[in-house]
Amino acid sequence: MSLLTNEAITGYREYTKRTLAYARYKIGSTYHKVSIDSVNVTSTGIVEVNFMIEPSVNGTVTEVQLFDTSGDLWFRKAESLDVSSVAEGFFYTVQIEITEKEDNS
After folding, report:
1. Element housing 82 (H / E)
2. CA–CA separation, 38 vs 48, rounded Å?
3. Are strands 73-82 and 30-41 parallel, antiparallel or unpaired?
4. pLDDT band at 101 (very low <50, low <70, confident <90, very high)
């Protein structure tokens, strides 16, 4: 049984869209800050955050991060994306599912 209404879950998704401010990715020991290109909610309720990884140096992206408008870290994921042969960069998408889970313990 759901405790939160559909409107509440939609509100959390909309809040997430409004509060995410920028992304960073790590190549070597250097973090590169980039703008978020878009934050959308899919028809299935997944929040999709899109940004470009534009390699300024050859190497491997080892981590991606998302930050909110206060500069707080919201998301961190280890990666292994070789950008040595990428000419123009690539689009990266983070998918976030916001759901309710009732604890029955």
Report:
1. strand 73-82
2. 8
3. unpaired
4. confident
- Residue 71 is given by DSSP the state S
pLDDT tens-place string over residues 54-94? 877 788 999 999 999 999 999 999 999 988 877 788 899 99
> CB count, 10 Å around CB of 20?
21
Considering the entire predicted model, what is its pTM? 0.88
The pair phi, psi for residue 58, each rounded to 5°, is: -70, 145
| Burial track 77-94 (b if 16+ CB lie within 10 A, e otherwise) | eeeebebeeeeeeeebeb
Here the tokens at position 62 are: 């080892």
Classified as helix, coil or strand, 80 is strand
Over residues 6-22, mean pLDDT: 95
Residue 42 has which token pair? 């899919």
